[in-house]
Specification:
By secondary structure, this protein is α+β, with helices and mostly antiparallel strands. Helices cover 38% and strands 14% of the residues. The strands form 2 sheets. Strands 1-5-4 form a 3-stranded mixed β-sheet. A hairpin with a 4-residue loop joins strand 4 and strand 5. The longest helix has 20 residues.
Length: 120
Amino acid sequence: MIMLNAANGSGILRIAGMIFALALTGCAFSPSTPGEEYEISHLKVVFLDEKQIRDKWEEVTGKTAVMMTPRLVRESKRQEEVVVGFYDFRTSTIYCPKMNFEVCGHELHHAVLGRFHFER
C-alpha cells in the first residue's frame, strides 16, 4: 500500500507522473495491427490518354471499348459506357489516365483483389 503525505504535494505529483509514464509505456508496447498487407511483384502501370486506353482495351480483349450498361437494366434505362482504365490480368499491367487517381486506384484494387464485379 502506498501512503501519501498530504503535506507533501510533490509526492502526489511524483506518483501521478509515474502512473502516467507506466500507462504510456503500455501503449508503446501494445501489438499493432497493420491491417491487410499485400505485395505485388512485377506490377506494371502504363499511363495513357482516353483514346489510347480504348484502343489498348480493344487490342487486349478483342471487345469494343464502348458498351451498354448491363442487360439486367430495363431497356429505357440502359446507357452507353466507355472503358476508362483496366487491369490486364495476363500481363499484370494497369492501364489508366495519369492523374485520375480514382480510376488508377480502382485498377490497383483489381491487381490486389482480383475480379470483383460483373464481367460482360
